[in-house]
Amino acid sequence: MMNTINTQSSCADDNEQDTLSVEHALQSMLANISEQAASEKIHLTDAVDRTLADSITSSINVPSHRNSAVDGYAIFQADLPANGDIATLNIVGQVVAGHAYEGDIQQGQCIQIMTGAQMPLLTDTVIMQEHVEVHGNSIHIDDRHNPGQNVRQAGEDIQQGQVVLQAGIKLTPPQIGLIASLGISEVCVKTPLVAAVFSTGDEVLNIGETPRKGCIYDSNRYSLIAALKKIGCKVLDMGIIADDPDKLRDAFELASKHSHVIFTSGGVSVGEADYTKQVLSETGAINFWKVAMKPGRPVAFGKIGDSTFFGLPGNPVAVMVTFYQFALPCLQKMMGLTSPLIAPIIDAKCTHSIRKIAGRTEFQRGILSKGNGDEWEVCTTGQQGSGILRSMSDANSFIILEHNRSSISEGESVSVQPFSSLF
Ligand code: AMP
Ligand code: MG
Question: How many Å lie between the centroid of ligand 1 and the Cα of residue 20?
Fold first, then answer.
């Protein structure tokens, strides 16, 4: 007879009980998040990467006047010569950018014009200076021209009254230029979210502290703060909170009073000293989830006061994976941002086999590159343990192995999510 003991389900099981799929967990989080409404007016030169709070409507035509697209000669299209003919036109004036030609011009005449200069009244076509022969005070042109050529029409870029940029976009350099072209110097943008970040655990040391036996330096707080700053959050660095219920309670209370969102790492699984979980349970508004994913299985989410709370796992890679997959879409919603923070998923050929069991989503760290052909290829960054942060820092993408998928053979197509410029 075989001896057995009663064990509990864990992340080592093929099919762990009571887990939530990644999609379900994210939907539940998003359903509990609302847009943060505050906005502020700032100067255009400070607005890059900020979220536009009010749509921008143009009060002018851009360009405001018909102008020449090249250096050349403004003419009447009726003066273009017939097939095989040459036309001779008298130069009766000159106009440079920033000025208008006020004199008269009649058929058979032309005005020398510079790029950007306003078209003289009734002229409608410009011949490039390289395409004419100049003889004293006149030009010769041949039949290789089209009526209306080389003229930029008033309002061809933007029309008066047109909505040029929609609220919710993250302003890019060309959009900043576009706003400037409308003569607008100030824009209304969303006020940054304030994120409080702290680490938990007696074993976690501040950088600069003398190493102690059995301790590790805090990396999670630094990677989280860097990621939050990168997306434009203001960060409150709350340091490391020891595994002590009173200290944790005080820290949560303080953070909730001064932030829109709180991030902690560690202490949300079933360890003996994981007081984070105990203290948070007292607030009543936190869910503790076992998400069917690897890495990142234990995640806590909910509210402390008015602040949204993310209790991320302790392992450094799990922190980054759960931040990317859960926190980023939630922060995007809170910021009222329509431009996606997360890159679209593409298909790539996996250059080697990967072992996987169905029943959870895996986020392996990948290096995506163009293969010998024109096809995208991906390989993992080697050892994939959730404590091996180098697997993440060497990577440029996640290889997403979907919930129901089992092992991958060499050459099979897999879903890859580039980090884009975030990580
Ligand atoms: P926990 O969920 O608190 O049991 O933590 C899981 C693992 O993550 C443990 O090995 C911790 O030492 C490690 N860990 C927790 N917090 C941090 C941190 N801030 N930086 C680096 N590793 C951490
Ligand atoms: Mg801990």
Answer: 22
